[in-house]
Amino acid sequence: MSFKRNVLLTATGLMLTLGVSITKLNAQESTENPIDTLARSVVKIQDDLAHLKKLKFSGYIQAQYQVADSIGAASYAGGNFPQYSDKRFAVRRGRLKAVYTGNWSQYVLQIDVTEKGVGIKDAYVKITDPWTKWVSLTAGVFNRPFGFEVEYSSSSRESPERGRMSQIIFPGERDLGAMITLQAPKTSPWNFLKADFAVINGTGGTASDFDFQKDIIARVRADKSSKNEKIKWGLGASYYDGGVRQGTSKVYTINADSAGLNAFKMNKDTANFGAMAKRQYVGVDGQVSIDFPFGITTLRGEYIQGQQPGTSTSTTSPSTQPGDVYVRNFNGAYFYFVQNIMQSKHAIVVKYDWYDPNTSISGDNIGAKILAFQGTTYKTTGTQDITYTTLGLGYIYKLDSNVKFTVYYDKVTNEKSINLGSSAYWKDLKDNVLTVRVQYKF
Fold it and tell me: pLDDT tens for residues 240-256?
């Protein structure tokens, strides 16, 4: 009984002690000013809101229906059609972008979600120097700073797709690397000038580099507007210098055969293996927008020429190590005419573009029989060297700031040759495409 009584007395004492402590604590808290407590809570909420304001989300989705002239048509209007189909529904782009902006830095992440899967579009950090505010460093996956169309957002562009040339020499638009940007603050009279210098892998935004050399891009640009904002114009010049590692000892360049026809001449040398094939472009672009009484008129154009290392079957910039390298000279351009109808929600667009992947060979010389000369091996060209022109006609209706409808028709014309074997390039292919698209942007 004594042990039990001691345990009971001890437990009772502990409970009394705890009760007294709680009473004292409550008495202390009751003396605190409720206004001070509320003020601290408000300050904390304001601090949390300040952080949230630095984070912004935006995005857009493009749902579309397309009809091609023929089943299984090869196309740059969103990719080739399925083998047994000439009609398709698709989510062309489903973008979600997060931007966190600090005092002198910015974090950007953008993903693309379609029926084909999920992919990264942008993933970079941008830091601006806090002293002059003229110099910015961007590092990660970002748009290649070449020309106008590559960087122009797909949500704002009047045509459903970029031109064929842009898609071939800059597939995916993005690349992985670092970029220095020089531009004065918005308060400076020199803000209209901008210069970019980027060092990139050259393999695209989602592919690892496969050679030791990095590619460089340099771009200068000027954008101005009149005092009344009725006229806006821009001019730019771009330069690309890089290369592709040669995966074999064979390199093909254009030369004349014994009959005087241009063809690919093979240069076989052990020194070629692992060496770099030159990849070099120059481009100029210009834009002007004039606010007339009958509506805003926009004219836009860009011309690019250069040297492109590809393969025997493709002129697309390689994202993986190629085998034998085929070096071609190319050129191409695009031109836009966009007319808003009065102050309404309607607009029309006319676009013309061309891409000549091999300026040294044309017409029936493509695929012509090649003669050997003094034991030198020549190779004929094929469908990959065909020139394409595209005339696009479109109608745009902007329901409000979020919703836009587009009806657009691509009339594609290919160069013809009677010497391409069993292919149908002796006539114009049936590869025109009608696109009906609805876009929601927030």
Answer: 999 999 999 999 998 87
